Structures are given as C-alpha cells and as structure tokens.
Amino acid sequence: MKKFLILFLSVLLFSPLSAQSSNRQVVVPHTIYVGDTAQLNISFTAKAGLLGEAETKGHNPQKDLSAENFDRVPDLNSYTIKRILLSRNGTASEGKANYTLTIIFTPWVTGQIKIPPYKIDKDFLVIPSEITVDSIFSVPKTPKTFVENKGPLLIPGTTYRILGKLIILGLLFITGIVILCRKDKVGLWYKNQKLKHLYSKNKKQTIAALNKLKVSAFDDKEKAEETQKLLRSYLTLRFGYPFSNCGASEIWKGFDEIFQGLLSEEKEEAVENLTGIFIRTDYIRYSKNISFDGDEFSNLVSQIIDIINTLEAQDKKEEDK
User: Where are the beta strands (DSSP E) in 108-204?
Assistant: First the structure.
C-alpha cells in the first residue's frame, strides 16, 4: 500500500512536465578531446511557439537561451557551457513543430560527462544523454599491414606547374654548363656589351652638350673652346687615344695609328672634316676680331653630329679587325 502511495504521488508531482529523451542527439565533431569546442544537437518535436516572438521571423527562426534554465547547476569543473541556442526546423504544422536545442561547450576531462536536463518551457524538459570525451592517448592501435604505395595527391593543374619548373631548372643547368665551358667567350661578350653601353652614353652626352652649346650665352671664342673640349673628350673615350693632347694637325695621325689605314672612304672624309673643324675653332679662339658668321656655329654643330654618326658606324673592315 505504501509503495502504491509513493508511485501515485510521484505521478502527481511530475505530470506537468513532459520530457524529451536524447534518442535524437548528435555531437559534432563525432570524436571530441579535452579542450575542443564541441556542439551538442538535440532534435525533438514539441508544441509550436517555444521561440516566443522569434517564432514568426523567417523560415527557420532561432534564439539564444539562458544557462540559468538547467535543471541543476552544471559541473563547471568538467566542462564550460559557451552558448545555448534553440532553433525551429521548417514550419509548424497542426500546432507542433520540430526544434533543435544546440549546446556549445568545451570539455575539460576525459571519460563520460553529463550535461543536466534543460527546461525550455515550464512544462517541457530536454534531457541530454552522456557524452564521451576521448583521450589523445587512447587512440586504438591498428595492426601492421602491408599497404600499397600510392603517389602524392595532386591538385588539378599542379602536374603542369611541376613540369614547367623542371624544364626551367633544366634550361638553367644547361645554360650554366655552357657558360662554364665558354667562360672566355662569355667574358669577352660581356666586356663588349659594357663598352657598347659606354660608347652609346658618350655619344648621347656629347650630342646633347653640343646642342645645348648652340643656345648658350657664351661668346664665339668660348663656344669654340667648349666645342674643342667636348670633341677631345668624346674622341679620347671612344677610341682610347689621347686626342686631348693632339693639335689640329695631329688628328689625322691619331686616327691612322688607331685604324692602321683601314678607314673607309666615308670615315676618311669625316676625319678630314673633323680636322677642318679643329682648325676653324682654333682660328676663332686665337684671333682678336674674328667670330662665327651668322648661322655658322649652328651649321658647325650639325656637321659635328654627322661626323660622330659616321665614326660610330661599323663597317666590315673594322669588324674583322
């Protein structure tokens, strides 16, 4: 009789609450370790309206819940509750709807942990099942078996990139071997390229300075003197001969020593004209009352530029030499 009375009282006390078992409980990830952030999802069906005002917002409404609604105080030494979320799945039908209670937590111990029941509504209680927290040292050992060797996984397009890099490395290797075998010729080629750059720069700077001299405020004697300085500097650097110490009558001698009589007719004429320019500028420099006539100096500069272009041109005899 006493047992029947106790059972009857228990039914009376707990009849207002309906409980949802955890037979639709999912833990994400499936295997969790100490310190991981895990997500416990418990799906259930209940009367519509558990979300309150959020129930009418969107197709799958949701809202955050308070940690104060646990049936008992959680064991904070075993885990930490970070967030509790209730969401509705789909639309309500016939006064009922499908819900998911999501509890995001971090475990701090291994083995079985138990999150206490959660009271969603005054007459609805969700009871989570036990959760297993694995140890990183408890991974089962797999038996040793012979496994077939497999090639590395390649992202699409990686093969072509690797092949391209191998081809480039091969070409660089071959180039290095060729350079080592022909280092004398390569050194000579490099030296010639430096000289060509130097000669080109010398030519451009000389022509630019001559054009600037045409519009300068120098008097005729100063222009004549500066013209000779520019020409002597250009010739000395270009031909490696001390033209800076040569008088007008020695210009021909210098070119004859350089080219050993291999000058073409065009260049012989250019040297003759160059000698005449030195003679004319000497005459302007050292005469008291003599100056350039009209556009004579401008024409003289144009003639010098033509002479420079002629001297810079390569002909077959000079290339052979």
Answer: 111-113, 118-121, 124-126, 131-133
pLDDT tens string 187-204: 777 888 888 889 899 999
Cα–Cα distance measured from residue 101 to residue 27, given in angstroms and rounded to the nearest whole number: 12
Per-residue pLDDT of 70-112, as tens digits, reads 888 888 888 999 899 888 887 777 778 888 889 999 999 888 9
The pairing of beta strand 118-121 with beta strand 124-126:
antiparallel
3-state secondary structure of 98: strand
Encoded tokens for 64: 């955050």
- pTM of the predicted structure, to 2 decimals: 0.43
Average pLDDT over residues 231-242: 90
- Look at 80 and 19; give whichever has higher pLDDT: 80
Burial 146-170 (b: 16+ CB within 10 A, else e): eeeeeeeeeeeeeeeeeeeeeeeee
Distance CA 118, CA 20 (A): 10
The CA distance from 258 to 265, in Å, is 16
Tokens 């073409």 — which residue?
264
Interatomic CA distance for residues 38 and 44, integer angstroms: 20
Which has the closest alpha carbon to 304: 176, 165, 206, 184?
206
Maximal CA-CA distance, the chain = 152
CA 101 to CA 133: how far, in whole Å? 20
Beta bridge partners of 38: 105
158-to-57, 149, 152, 172, 303 alpha-carbon distances in Å: 47, 20, 11, 21, 63
- Pick the more confident residue, 55 or 125: 125
Alpha-carbon gap, residue 66 to 13, rounded angstroms = 25
166 or 6: which carries more pLDDT confidence?
A: 166
